[in-house]
Write a structure and sequence with these properties.
By secondary structure, the chain is mainly α. The chain has a domain of about 80 residues. The protein contains two helices and no strands. The longest helix has about 70 residues. The relative contact order is 0.03.
Length: about 120
């Protein structure tokens, strides 16, 4: 086939479908709207769940911070008590104190020559 001559006038024709779509065009629009609404609701639900998860995580971090603070205070108190007990132990094991208690409270005296027996 040869192309039409250039001198001829060009006319545009609109082709219409041979078969009309079944039902009305509003049905497709309603279907798309329903799909869009469901997607929006699902997205909203996901966002709400994520926000609730973030709030829960923040609360957990806050509670753990309080727990850490309590444990730190307990650790400091126990370290202080340990230092006090070390001082008390050193005081109780002091040889001068033991000698003083032995002489004054218990009435002990230094051993005389011959009272000490060395075992081999």
């Amino acid at each position: 086939m040869s192309p039409p001559p250039s001198s001829a006038t060009h006319t545009l024709t609109v082709r219409r479908p041979l078969v009309r779509p079944a039902g009305d065009g509003g049905r497709l629009l309603r279907t798309m709207r329903g799909w869009l609404v469901r997607r929006a609701l699902a997205l909203g639900a996901v966002l709400i769940v994520l926000c609730m998860l973030q709030v829960w995580l923040r609360l957990q971090v806050l509670h753990l911070g309080y727990d850490l603070s309590v444990v730190r205070q307990m650790q400091l108190r126990l370290e202080h008590d340990r230092r006090e007990l070390e001082v008390e132990r050193a005081t109780l094991r002091d040889p001068r104190r033991i000698d003083d208690i032995a002489r004054h409270r218990l009435g002990m005296v230094d051993a005389r020559k011959g009272q000490v027996v060395t075992l081999r």
